[in-house]
Amino acid sequence: MSRFLFSPRRPGALRWISHGAFGALLVSALAMTAGDGGTAVAAGGALLGGLYVAWVLLEGELVPGRPGLALLCLLPVVLTWAALAAAAPPFVWLVLPLALTCARALPLWAGAFAASVLACGSVILMITHTGL
To answer: What is the pTM of this model?
Structure first.
C-alpha cells in the first residue's frame, strides 16, 4: 500500500482528472484574458499550455526514477504559471491542478512543500488582485 495518495506508481483517475482540470481552467483563463484584450497574457497562457503538455509527455519517464529531474522539468511550468497568475486573475485558479501535479510527481517532502508554497502564493495573488 502506498504511503501517499498521489504516488506516481498508482496511475489512475486522479492523474487524468488533474490534467483535465488544468486544461479546462487554462482554456477558461485564455478565453477571459483574450476577451479583455490581453493578447500578451493569452500568448503566455498558450506557452504555459505547451509547457504543461511537454511535462505530461515526459512525466512517465522522469518521475519514477529521477525526482530531481522531475523537479527541474516542473520548474518552468510553475514559474510561467506564477508570472501569468501575477498578470491576470483567471490564471490564479490553475493552482489546484498544478499543486496536485507537484504533490504527485515529487518526493513526499518536496511535493508537500511545493503544494504549500503554491497555495500560499495563490492566496497572496488573489488578495493582491482584489486590491486589499
So the answer is: 0.82
